[in-house]
Amino acid sequence: MNFDITWTITAVIAVSSFLSPVVVSWMNNKHHYKMRKLELQSDLINNQISTLYNDKLTSYKKFIEVAGQYSMYSDSVRAYAKVNASLHESMILCDEITYPLLLEFQNKMDSFSRDRESYNALFTEISKSFNRELFTLLPEKIN
Which of 11, 60, 73, 112 suits a disulfide with 130, CB 3.0-4.6 Å? Predict the structure, then answer.
């Protein structure tokens, strides 16, 4: 049996010209699928961070507002109920550094009417901790 090399080369070129676009298309589709999956994961994470940031901001602003009012009207049951509800909402969202400060605030709420200095000091520490929490989320939110 005698093979003609030109026919063999022609056959190899024909088969490779048919298979090459198929392989390239498959590789491109696989790469595009991976990139799209990563993009969707990134969008989901950014959306969750943005939602968490907005929830924390809203909760912390509300707490600061009602706690500020409570410092002036500490004898009011309504002010006490508002600050307590806002405090618990903030406790749900805060991190492990802010939580003890809020717990201390809750434990000392009844004695604050007699000691405004300690109230203001703890209130300032809580505000700083809120600021730290929001600031750590902010760079993630921008990206």
Answer: 60
